[in-house]
């Protein structure tokens, strides 16, 4: 398949490249919708002893995605009208024609509905992804990574900060939705060098003793959230932050996305470990008790829209932070817009709408990327690797200055 990515950056005269859909045969987005989501339905089905009602609903959802059109939520669904308003033009159309970001988000809402997570009854509130999360958290890899924290004790504060930032960044590879809940399709070996590295700008925003407020919008639990908590502890313990706001999802989402219950599970895992890991866990728990670390959530984190459309209350909250750190691939797609941007498009320009300084820590697991140096992009394209989608490459991008301008995105742009 030829490269169908935009090269000029115009769409409909608005100066915007096209929104990514699942239409293109052989594209990453189409593979997610046609292969990964049906496989996930079967994995969730096999993880619980669901009854006939849940099995019928899962069968109907599977058939609808592959052969049917997008159906609205049922009349009894409390958020039916909300979703009808979020994308009325997509209902009655093939799933593959909807914006990728919208379709993925609606898929996870429909999956929760199929297994009874939102309904009154015995399956209400039972996380369908919990077995996969727990298996990862209790695995040998987590044990090894916790033991490795003892090796950091002899490092200087600067060396430790660098190591922990890298740990938080590369922890994003531990994505059960990307790898598959059974771990059968682990990503290829990571490439050490970052495709963009603004880590110096990140640390410049958080000098020791400044007492900054840092917002961290989490992505995955388990082997990513534990390094995130370790980094948060370092920020607080070394005075680079006086307060941290940790944002998680309000309900199960994208398989391994972190909720409050997952924060608790990861903290217990830390606290129960010997050595440095246990000490970090106890400090994190104390920080939560004193209010220096506060776990928050918002319904918008499960919405099918880019962050440019965040509601006023969330915009105001994030506007109080010295720096907002967004973890992971989905947050990156929502930050810059899930579009076929030319890869050299300015990161600062497309994030200018964000209410304050913002940093993205992300391993690349989808087509969207901006802010690359032309020489870096040329080398990546020559490599012959699927560098955009394989999870082997990573970036740290920072926009330190907020100038109040933005790239305008029309309503329901995905």
Summed up, the domain count is: 2
Could you describe the largest sheet, including whether it forms a barrel? 7 strands, mixed
Question: Care to count the β-strands?
Answer: 7
Order of SSEs, N→C?
HHHHHHHHEHEHEHHEHEHHEHE
Mind telling me the CATH superfamily name of the largest domain? Answer: Uncharacterised protein PF01937, DUF89, domain 3
What's the overall average pLDDT, rounded?
90
- CATH top level of the largest domain is Alpha Beta
Strand line-up across the major sheet: 1-7-6-5-2-3-4
How far apart, in Å, are the first and last alpha carbons? 25 Å
Account of the 3D structure:
The radius of gyration is 21 Å and the shape is globular. Helices cover 41% and strands 8% of the residues. It folds into two domains: 28-128, Transcription Elongation Factor S-II, Chain A (Up-down Bundle), CATH 1.20.930; 134-399, Uncharacterised protein PF01937, DUF89, domain 3 (Rossmann fold). It starts with 27 loop residues before the first helix and ends in a 15-residue tail after the last strand. It has a seven-stranded mixed sheet with strand order 1-7-6-5-2-3-4, sandwiched between helices. The protein has 414 residues and is of the alpha/beta class. This is Damage-control phosphatase ARMT1 family protein.
